[in-house]
Amino acid sequence: MVVQNISNKKKMRNVLFITFLILTLLIGRIGYIQIIQGEELQTLAYKQQSLDRNINPKRGTIYDSSGKYILAVSSTVYTVTVNPTNIANENKEKVAQALSNIFELEYDTVLKKVKKRSSIETIVKKVEKDKTDELRVWLQENNIQTGVNIDEDTKRYYPYADLASQVIGFCGSDNQGLDGIEAKYETELAGTPGSIERLSNATGEEIGTEGEKYKSAIDGNNLVLSIDMTIQSIVEKYLEEACIDNVCTDGGNVIVMNPKTGDVLAMATYPGYNLNDPYTINSEELQTVWYTLDQSQKTENLQAMWRNKAIADTYEPGSVFKIITASASLEEKITDTDNEGEFCCTGGIEVAGTRIKCWRYYKPHGPESLRQALMNSCNPVFIGLGQKLGVEKYYSYLQKFGFLEKTGISLPGEAKGIFLDQSKVGPVELATISFGQRFEITPIQMATAACTVANGGTKVTPRLVKQIVNSQTGEITELPVEEKERVISEETASKVLSMLESVVSEGTGKNAKVAGYKIGGKTGTSEDGVNTNKYVTSFLGIAPTDNAQVVVLITLYNPTGEGGHQGGGVAAPVGGQILSEILPYLEVEQGNIDEIEQKTEVSVPDIIGKTIEEAEKILKENGLEIQINNQTEELDKKTITVVNQLPQAGINVYSGSCIYIDY
Question: Structure pTM?
Fold first, then answer.
């Protein structure tokens, strides 16, 4: 009996010990969960019970300078997501099948997402309303009220596809700007996301009476560019023709600026690309072998396509740069414009034991004034002027004109001039710089420096964005014109413009003449690198010379056509074509009326709302041609109507001009 009592007591002690041990472990576990894991588990519980979804704001609209033409806009699309835990098990396969059918997705992939143990899964992004309407009907018919979400989203759209593509840039799938204006002004354009917060229990039923909390997205601000839609269209038309006709293997670019404000009225690079499809290469040759390229090769080619050569690529300007040498020499009073016989071209000049030839060494120019030397583009004269200026003084003008720094244009990826360090410049190096070779600058640097001459001697900063418009209040913020220091006197600028007018009227720039207007200009031809057998040909135009309204710089890379590679024969005609349409459009007053050719002006008729067939007939009767934008297939011209036109009705253009339409 005693033995049995001892045994029972022992059993009770063991039970009590085990119970105490279990309680201790439970208390320890509870303490660990509460203290150590408390914050983490609270977060997980919140995620499980709250179904937060972001609402993407509409990205700001980008307009041309008139504020009428939309260059980039965000349209409403939809994103479909699911909350797998809130879809009943018996409905999962049915939901997955419906989603895959409606949005043309792989069923197995969708099913994995629907069955996944997570709070939210994205099924499809940026789909049109008709598709989501179809889904809404299906959900209603099948009485599925939780677990499938349809939220508003935005998609970036570029109405003019490839117009000003390297300037505007494009967005990624997350609506973030990746290049051009889209990237540079991301903060202004992006807006602030909103959200939808919905509290629920494990079965998806709402907790409490608040239901969904909706926080509106704040749309991005709008931008008004300095780019003029009509001028941009004119520029792109003639640039494309020039690059094709002259077989420019490396493309080309054109910059048009208002010299008084620095406004960039047009900036075009050829070839462009479709902003609505920026990952499709624009080269037919590359398209045929695209599948054979590895990812690094594809990336390299795409980046080259997106590259804005006008600001990111450097080149030797050649004889166009003689404008700078002439300006510095006149400002320092080393010479004057019309000192007859002041210089003498013998076909070359000896510099530190090296003979540097004139381009017309075989038939020297002989006695010349500075005006004649610029008209003839005579290298020895400008070498001599460089020698008189000296390295230190010459480099001070390079700095003043902005060649030793970036222009500050509001685009990503701008480069700056590449010059030898001043301490390393010897007589030969100074000689080559004086006539525009053996250094490199960007086209935007050259165009901006020309604006300094054109506006009377004051440096300006290129401006691409004129206004920022607040999407909530409509308040307009003007981005000021940044006028900088005086570089040369008005007297010097006037003298240079007078000489540039002579270059076009009598010199190497004759092919840029526009009847009725005083055009100034300078041609340029240079090697594209050393021993490459490639050339860069260019033309710089200023018009009109007595009250400059525009500066135009045409740069063509490696023209290999029958017309050769000289600036006067290849680039100058393009300058003349562009100016012949831009100047009337800007309503620049004509001079030299007696010289005007029999080329009449025509007021553009209103063809919006007309069928394409009717529009063609109306334009033909007025001596104008038609060009259909973004035509990818044969159109029924009898039924399809015109919804937009460039130039607008009422604008005066020359007969034979092309009118661009959208349908």
Answer: 0.81
